[in-house]
Amino acid sequence: MTQVTDHRGGVWSISVPLPGNPLGHTLVHLLETGRGPVLIDTGWDDPASWDALTAGITACGFAVADIHGVLLTHHHPDHHGLSAAVREASGAWIAMHAADAEVVRRTRQARPAAWRAQLAARLAAAGAPEEHLAPLRTARGGELPGQRAAVPDRHIAPGELLDLPGRRLRAVWTPGHTPGHVCLHLEEAHPGRAPGARGDEVGAGFGRLFSGDHLLPGISPHIGVYEGPDEAPADPLGDYLASLERVARLDPAEVLPAHQHPFTDAAGRARALLAHHEARLGGLVRLLAEPLTLWQLTVAMEWNRPWERIPYASRTIAVAEAEAHLRRLMVLGRAAAVPGSNPVTYRAV
Ligand SMILES: [Zn+2]
Ligand SMILES: [Zn+2]
User: Where is the signal peptide (predicted)?
Assistant: First the structure.
């Protein structure tokens, strides 16, 4: 069943299923322009998802062959997965922020064995037990997620007004969830404000914001250490918190996120997420009253279920999330490594 919502003013959303994921679907947005429709994200690479996307484009009154371009909020496969298929079917260009395009290129070139060895070394340094490392050491062959993702044709520059005839769409760089995440601000009067239009659920601000995974109405997006070489340790949580402030200042009348449902009061939602992370950082400082390895800290943190019930792959993701919080505390001078400890332990200062 095709699920399409007409948001008016030449904006639609298409609900593209996300198989086997509790999120349920990705909301792909279609924006009509003077050169044909442009997609914001494309959805998960799966035959049923492709059928839903193409049926959705038809329900909006276009054909997939008409697609002029694809704008990606970020490189994750539930957003970028079908981009190659869309380009194949239409000749559309694909645009992404340079930092995420770099992740796509690196992932395509990665050798699975070397990638697993590197991850195992990092987890060992974090103090992970042998039972968590063993599956990485014994796995053979296979393909890494995103190894066949499309290489973008163009980069989206921060602050850029995109070249889309008849539309005012501006890129807002919002690193944190990924290093090159962007939100896209449609700097046009909200159609709910036009005289005689339905004025349902329109906030006080200006325009509409396609927020990707940066700002979701009921989920705090995963913030982990960025993939790839980290000679200069990045501070993804610091990036994310600054990006939340940036979006709060934009104050759009409505947010069109890539999961769940549209909402208003972007500033209120951003403040709630800022408070959530501040509370989480405070909880970590209390745990670090005694020295802990990154692994011990991860196990001690509060998750959405007891640690024993968290599946293997999610535990690795949890370590990345704990590390992002720990790096933030170290940048703030609220935690430090214990000199001489091996594996390295950290404590509050
Ligand atoms: Zn994502
Ligand atoms: Zn997503």
Answer: none
Q: Average pLDDT, stretch 103-124?
A: 92
Give the confidence band of 122 by pLDDT, cuts at 50, 70, 90.
Answer: very high
- Residue 344: name the closest of 300, 296, 273 by CA: 296
Here the tokens at position 311 are 């599946």
Q: For residue 154, what are the β-bridge partners? A: 95
Instruction: For residue 222, count other CB atoms closer than 10 A to its CB.
Output: 15
Q: Judge whether 128 lies within some domain.
A: yes
The residue segments making up the domain with residue 322 are 111-145+288-348
CA of 288 to the centre of ligand 2 (A): 31
239, 176 in Cβ contact below 8 A? Answer: yes
Residues 6+ apart with CB under 8 A from 232: none
Which residues are bridge partners to 263 per DSSP? 255
For ligand 2, the distance from its centroid to the CA atom of residue 222, given in whole angstroms, is: 10
Give one word for 202, left, alpha or beta, with left for phi > 0 and alpha for psi -120 to 50.
beta
- Assign 287 a pLDDT band (cuts: 50, 70, 90): very high
Report the DSSP beta bridge partners of residue 17. 25
Report yes or no on 259 lying in a domain.
yes
Q: Residue 269 region, left (φ>0) first, then alpha (ψ -120 to 50), else beta? A: alpha
Ligand nearest to the CA of 79: 2
Condensed to tens digits (0 to 9), the pLDDT of residues 187-241 reads: 999 998 776 666 666 877 899 999 999 999 999 999 998 866 555 678 999 999 9
Q: What Cα–Cα distance (Å) separates residue 328 from each residue in 6, 96, 333?
A: 41, 26, 9
Residues 6 or more apart whose CB falls under 8 angstroms from that of 309 comprise none
And the tokens for 192? 């709910």
44 alpha carbon – ligand 2 mean position (Å): 9
Instruction: Calculate how far, in angstroms, residue 161's C-alpha sits from the geometric centre of ligand 2.
Output: 24
Q: Is 283 within a domain? A: no
- Do 124 and 193 reside in the same domain of the chain? no
Distance, CA 307 to ligand 1 centroid (Å)? 23
What does residue 7 show for φ and ψ, rounded to 5 degrees? -85, 5
Structural domain total, the chain: 2
